[in-house]
Design goal:
Layout lengths: L2 H26 L6 H7 L4 H5 L5 H26 L4 H16 L10 H9 L5 H26 L9 H20 L6 H13 L2
Helix pairs in contact: 1-4, 1-6, 4-5, 4-7, 5-8, 5-9, 6-7, 7-8, 8-9
Protein backbone atom coordinates (compact mmCIF):
# COMPACT_ATOMS: atom_id res chain seq x y z
CA UNK A 1 0.00 0.00 0.00
CA UNK A 2 1.34 3.43 -0.93
CA UNK A 3 1.84 6.07 1.79
CA UNK A 4 -0.95 8.13 0.21
CA UNK A 5 -3.42 5.25 0.38
CA UNK A 6 -2.31 4.48 3.92
CA UNK A 7 -2.95 8.08 5.00
CA UNK A 8 -6.33 8.12 3.28
CA UNK A 9 -7.28 4.89 5.01
CA UNK A 10 -6.24 6.26 8.40
CA UNK A 11 -8.24 9.44 7.81
CA UNK A 12 -11.31 7.45 6.80
CA UNK A 13 -11.00 5.25 9.90
CA UNK A 14 -10.67 8.31 12.12
CA UNK A 15 -13.77 9.86 10.55
CA UNK A 16 -15.71 6.64 11.06
CA UNK A 17 -14.69 6.54 14.72
CA UNK A 18 -15.70 10.16 15.30
CA UNK A 19 -19.02 9.96 13.48
CA UNK A 20 -20.00 6.89 15.46
CA UNK A 21 -18.63 8.45 18.63
CA UNK A 22 -20.85 11.51 18.15
CA UNK A 23 -23.91 9.29 17.76
CA UNK A 24 -23.13 7.17 20.82
CA UNK A 25 -22.19 10.17 22.98
CA UNK A 26 -25.44 11.95 22.09
CA UNK A 27 -27.23 9.05 23.81
CA UNK A 28 -24.82 7.88 26.53
CA UNK A 29 -22.79 11.01 27.14
CA UNK A 30 -19.08 11.57 26.77
CA UNK A 31 -18.22 10.31 30.25
CA UNK A 32 -20.26 7.15 29.72
CA UNK A 33 -18.71 6.47 26.33
CA UNK A 34 -17.35 2.91 26.33
CA UNK A 35 -14.14 2.43 24.35
CA UNK A 36 -14.92 -1.27 24.06
CA UNK A 37 -18.40 -0.71 22.67
CA UNK A 38 -17.27 1.97 20.24
CA UNK A 39 -14.41 -0.25 19.05
CA UNK A 40 -16.82 -3.13 18.44
CA UNK A 41 -19.24 -0.91 16.52
CA UNK A 42 -16.55 0.31 14.13
CA UNK A 43 -14.88 -3.10 13.86
CA UNK A 44 -11.60 -2.26 15.58
CA UNK A 45 -9.64 -3.31 18.64
CA UNK A 46 -9.60 -0.99 21.67
CA UNK A 47 -5.95 -0.20 21.03
CA UNK A 48 -6.58 0.44 17.35
CA UNK A 49 -9.43 2.80 18.17
CA UNK A 50 -7.68 4.84 20.83
CA UNK A 51 -4.33 4.89 19.00
CA UNK A 52 -5.02 7.86 16.68
CA UNK A 53 -6.13 9.97 19.66
CA UNK A 54 -3.72 8.88 22.40
CA UNK A 55 -6.21 8.96 25.26
CA UNK A 56 -9.92 8.81 26.01
CA UNK A 57 -9.90 12.52 26.84
CA UNK A 58 -8.48 13.40 23.43
CA UNK A 59 -11.10 11.16 21.83
CA UNK A 60 -13.82 13.00 23.76
CA UNK A 61 -12.46 16.36 22.64
CA UNK A 62 -12.30 15.16 19.03
CA UNK A 63 -15.90 13.93 19.26
CA UNK A 64 -17.02 17.37 20.46
CA UNK A 65 -15.13 19.00 17.60
CA UNK A 66 -16.73 16.66 15.06
CA UNK A 67 -20.14 17.25 16.63
CA UNK A 68 -19.64 20.97 16.16
CA UNK A 69 -18.79 20.46 12.49
CA UNK A 70 -21.96 18.44 11.95
CA UNK A 71 -24.08 21.03 13.75
CA UNK A 72 -22.64 23.73 11.50
CA UNK A 73 -23.54 21.68 8.41
CA UNK A 74 -27.06 20.87 9.59
CA UNK A 75 -28.07 24.15 11.18
CA UNK A 76 -25.68 27.09 11.02
CA UNK A 77 -24.70 27.04 7.35
CA UNK A 78 -28.33 26.98 6.11
CA UNK A 79 -29.19 29.77 8.57
CA UNK A 80 -26.24 31.85 7.36
CA UNK A 81 -27.65 31.59 3.83
CA UNK A 82 -30.92 33.21 4.95
CA UNK A 83 -31.26 37.01 4.99
CA UNK A 84 -30.28 38.65 8.28
CA UNK A 85 -33.08 39.42 10.69
CA UNK A 86 -36.27 37.53 11.39
CA UNK A 87 -35.73 35.20 8.42
CA UNK A 88 -32.39 34.06 9.84
CA UNK A 89 -33.91 33.44 13.27
CA UNK A 90 -36.65 31.39 11.67
CA UNK A 91 -34.05 29.47 9.66
CA UNK A 92 -32.18 28.76 12.90
CA UNK A 93 -35.40 27.41 14.38
CA UNK A 94 -35.95 25.08 11.43
CA UNK A 95 -32.30 24.03 11.59
CA UNK A 96 -32.64 23.22 15.28
CA UNK A 97 -35.69 21.09 14.50
CA UNK A 98 -33.70 19.17 11.90
CA UNK A 99 -30.74 18.77 14.25
CA UNK A 100 -32.78 17.48 17.19
CA UNK A 101 -35.52 15.45 15.50
CA UNK A 102 -34.38 14.55 11.98
CA UNK A 103 -30.78 13.35 12.40
CA UNK A 104 -31.12 9.84 13.91
CA UNK A 105 -27.89 8.69 12.28
CA UNK A 106 -25.73 11.52 13.62
CA UNK A 107 -27.58 12.55 16.81
CA UNK A 108 -29.99 9.80 17.91
CA UNK A 109 -29.98 11.15 21.47
CA UNK A 110 -30.48 14.80 20.57
CA UNK A 111 -28.13 17.69 21.27
CA UNK A 112 -24.62 16.41 22.01
CA UNK A 113 -23.66 19.66 23.74
CA UNK A 114 -26.77 19.74 25.93
CA UNK A 115 -25.96 16.22 27.12
CA UNK A 116 -22.34 17.20 27.73
CA UNK A 117 -23.42 20.34 29.61
CA UNK A 118 -25.23 18.30 32.23
CA UNK A 119 -22.24 15.97 32.51
CA UNK A 120 -19.52 18.59 32.83
CA UNK A 121 -21.11 21.77 34.21
CA UNK A 122 -19.72 21.12 37.72
CA UNK A 123 -16.38 19.64 36.61
CA UNK A 124 -13.07 21.12 35.57
CA UNK A 125 -10.71 20.18 32.80
CA UNK A 126 -10.24 20.30 29.03
CA UNK A 127 -13.54 18.60 28.14
CA UNK A 128 -15.48 21.00 30.39
CA UNK A 129 -13.70 23.92 28.73
CA UNK A 130 -14.52 22.59 25.25
CA UNK A 131 -18.19 22.24 26.17
CA UNK A 132 -18.26 25.81 27.51
CA UNK A 133 -16.56 27.05 24.34
CA UNK A 134 -19.09 25.29 22.12
CA UNK A 135 -22.07 26.60 24.08
CA UNK A 136 -20.61 30.12 24.15
CA UNK A 137 -20.23 30.08 20.37
CA UNK A 138 -23.87 28.96 19.99
CA UNK A 139 -25.05 31.67 22.40
CA UNK A 140 -22.99 34.32 20.59
CA UNK A 141 -24.51 33.26 17.26
CA UNK A 142 -28.02 33.65 18.69
CA UNK A 143 -27.20 37.05 20.22
CA UNK A 144 -25.77 38.30 16.91
CA UNK A 145 -28.83 37.06 15.00
CA UNK A 146 -31.26 38.76 17.39
CA UNK A 147 -29.30 42.02 17.36
CA UNK A 148 -29.35 42.02 13.55
CA UNK A 149 -33.12 41.58 13.68
CA UNK A 150 -33.43 44.44 16.16
CA UNK A 151 -31.28 46.73 13.99
CA UNK A 152 -33.51 45.93 11.02
CA UNK A 153 -36.62 46.78 13.03
CA UNK A 154 -37.94 43.21 12.75
CA UNK A 155 -38.49 42.52 16.45
CA UNK A 156 -41.56 43.54 18.45
CA UNK A 157 -41.41 47.07 19.86
CA UNK A 158 -39.28 47.25 22.97
CA UNK A 159 -37.81 43.77 22.54
CA UNK A 160 -34.39 43.32 24.14
CA UNK A 161 -32.26 41.25 21.73
CA UNK A 162 -30.09 39.82 24.53
CA UNK A 163 -33.16 38.73 26.49
CA UNK A 164 -34.69 37.31 23.31
CA UNK A 165 -31.54 35.26 22.66
CA UNK A 166 -31.70 33.96 26.25
CA UNK A 167 -35.34 32.93 25.83
CA UNK A 168 -34.69 31.31 22.45
CA UNK A 169 -31.87 29.26 23.97
CA UNK A 170 -34.28 28.10 26.67
CA UNK A 171 -36.91 27.16 24.08
CA UNK A 172 -34.41 25.19 22.02
CA UNK A 173 -33.13 23.34 25.09
CA UNK A 174 -36.70 22.57 26.16
CA UNK A 175 -37.47 21.27 22.68
CA UNK A 176 -34.58 18.81 22.95
CA UNK A 177 -36.09 17.50 26.20
CA UNK A 178 -39.60 17.35 24.78
CA UNK A 179 -38.47 15.27 21.80
CA UNK A 180 -36.10 12.84 23.49
CA UNK A 181 -37.36 12.57 27.07
CA UNK A 182 -41.11 13.11 26.75
CA UNK A 183 -41.55 12.03 23.11
CA UNK A 184 -44.07 14.84 22.77
CA UNK A 185 -45.74 14.61 19.33
CA UNK A 186 -46.56 18.32 19.54
CA UNK A 187 -42.98 19.42 20.31
CA UNK A 188 -42.28 20.87 16.85
CA UNK A 189 -45.55 22.82 16.80
CA UNK A 190 -44.93 24.10 20.33
CA UNK A 191 -41.42 25.25 19.45
CA UNK A 192 -42.61 27.11 16.37
CA UNK A 193 -45.41 28.70 18.36
CA UNK A 194 -42.99 29.81 21.08
CA UNK A 195 -40.52 31.28 18.61
CA UNK A 196 -43.34 33.00 16.73
CA UNK A 197 -44.54 34.61 19.96
CA UNK A 198 -41.05 35.95 20.70
CA UNK A 199 -40.54 37.22 17.15
CA UNK A 200 -44.01 38.72 16.87
CA UNK A 201 -45.04 36.59 13.90
Amino acid sequence: MSPRNSLAGAAAARQRILDRGVAVASVEGLRGLSIGRLAAEVGMSKAGLIGPFGSKEMLQLSILERGGELIAEIMLEPAAAAPPGRARLQALTEGWIRYISAEPEHFPGGCLFTTATFEYDALDGPVHDAVVDGMNRWRAYLVEATREAAELGELPDGADPDQLAFELMGLFTGFNMSVHLFHDPDAVARLRQGVGRLLGT
